[in-house]
Each structure stands twice: as C-alpha cells, then as structure tokens.
Amino acid sequence: MKCTNITYQLAEDTRRLYFGPLTPGYDLMTKLSGYIDSILPPNAHEIAENRLFISVTSTKNGKNYLLSHFASREDLVKALLASSFIPLYAGINAVDYKGQKWIDGGLSNGLPILSKGRTVTVSPFCGRLDICPENKGRVDIYAKVAKQDIMLSIGNFLRLHQALFPPSQEKMESLYQDGYDDAIQFLLKENWFE
C-alpha cells in the first residue's frame, strides 16, 4: 500500500506543475530517490541478490545490461534510479553507477528475457505479452521498439501519454484495477492458482 500511495503522491506532485516533470527546476530523480529510500529495508540489496534483475542501458555503447548483484543498499538504489532515467524527461545528466553513465533499460530492450526459467512478460501497453491490456481495435499492427513488439493503436498512444503525464488519481486507480484484473486472468489461464 505504501508504494501505491507514493505513486499517487508523485503523480499529484507532477500534475501541479505547468509542464509536469518537464517543468524547469523540478528534479524528478531527487524525488524518486527519496521515495525509493523510504521504502527499501536496510538489507534490500541482500534480499534482491540474484532475484531482482534491473535493466539498464549504457550511454557509452547503447547496449542493454541486466543487473542482479548489488554490493550495498546504496548500490541497489543507484541501479533502480539508473533504470528509471529517461533522458530529458527525468533530467539531462544520466545516472552515474559504478563509474559509468546509465539510462532506462527499456530504451535498449523493452522486454528482457532471462536465460533460465520462464520470464512472465508484463507491460502497460497492449501487445504480444503475458500480462497487458486487451486490444479493443480491429486491426493488429505492430512496431518493433527496443526489441519489443508494441501495437500501434490509439489506446497505446493514450497509455504512453498517461505514463508520462499522469491522469487523475481516480483514473490511476482504475488503471491499477485493470492491471490487477489482467494479472489474475493470466494466473487463471496458466492454472497457477492451487
């Protein structure tokens, strides 16, 4: 519940700004860092070790990397911030992590698949994924974006706008419920409830 409340608070903060997070002087990354710091337990890096895979993009070569080893809690926080950094939207200077500059992994690989086990694919955009919104259109036209097939639809363009410029809390609560319902539908279809 704390993460949900933080999400609503961050959205409310950006809605108050004339240009949302693009408003000059607004520091999204500092806000995000504070929120992450308030949520993670002291041993978060130990809990996450080889269980959490964080996707980042190197600014040096544009390649995607998955991080799963975190030397400290601060190391984990930096990796999370790097994976959240969308250039211009989140600021100008990419996140410095272990002596290199990193940005959001979704810009180089929007859907990393782990080499072991089954990766359940989840996205807020409709497409060829395990858990995602349903396409309500009649024609399925896809574009390959960052190694992910994204459906070109008005619904997905609206979802992108809502991701960058959050709608009202009431609408966000509705989107949350839609995502929850999509996840339950997937679990039922896969027979993962016992």
TrEMBL record:
Any Gene Ontology biological process: triglyceride catabolic process
Keyword terms, alphabetized: Lipid metabolism
GO molecular function: triacylglycerol lipase activity
A cellular component annotation (GO) from this entry: cytoplasm
Pfam families found in the cross-reference section: Patatin
Domain PNPLA: residue ranges: 1-117
InterPro entries: Acyl_Trfase/lysoPLipase, PLPL, PNPLA_dom
Gene3D superfamilies linked to this entry: Cytosolic phospholipase A2 catalytic domain
Motif DGA/G boundaries: 104-106
This protein's name: Patatin-like phospholipase domain-containing protein 4 isoform X1
Organism: Thamnophis sirtalis
Lineage of origin: Eukaryota, Metazoa, Chordata, Craniata, Vertebrata
Protein encoded by which gene: PNPLA4
